[in-house]
Hints:
seven-stranded mixed beta sheet, about 260 residues, 9 helices, Rossmann fold, alpha/beta
Amino acid sequence: MTGSAAPTPPPTTVDFGYERVAPEDKAxxxxxxxxxxxxxxxxxxxLMSFGVHRLWKRFLLSQTGLRPGQHxxxxxxxxxxxxxxxxxxxxxxxxxxxxxxNAQMLRHGRDRLLDRGIVHNVDFxxxxxxxxxxxDRSFDCVxxxxxxxxxxxxxxxxxxxxxxxxxxxQLLVLEFSKPVLPGxxxxxxxxxxxxxxxxxxxxxxxxxxxxxxxxSIRMFPDQTxxxxxxxxxxxxxxxxxxLSGGIVALHRGWRY
Length: 256
């Protein structure tokens, strides 16, 4: 007679770029990275992507299906690019929550929205993606753009996002992924590891943070593996759209 399988113990180390560190150490070090780059984050995004990150985010927003009066959550929303679009989609009768674990990034995002006069339908929450402080089935759509790879326990974060979605709600994950266009991979690697740290040093005064960001992209699950993580978290109808030859992918999943 066999008993039930013992639960899998939590990992003793996780990736921080190419390093292996204790889980609590990763959270601390990721926080330090974004403390360092918060004030120049938007400028660096434009420089690193030649402005294309705006098109990637616009595509995400085109897929939300949100209607006026609905509720949306932007996880790891940082400086508020996605929240601005969500706010327009749900309108004055709807509600958007912009959450981030990093206080400096959240403060910067709040200031940007206030500067644009977006004050009536957006709330801000200092929150860990793995333990979202919202009631079950609260949101019609949850988004996370370029934030999941920095989360220590990605499975826990996806499970938390599933929990707060209403039945029929959708999760959209925009993240760097694995290039699928022939010949693009080596060029992308050369750019990431030779150019990005130099840009980081010259513009943000921090080469190491941008070296970590390049490494974290390489350690992130590829398109197929991330689809598997979404299914394991409970999502249905999971699929992805490759953007810019697979440099970025938008993953989608629904709670039915």
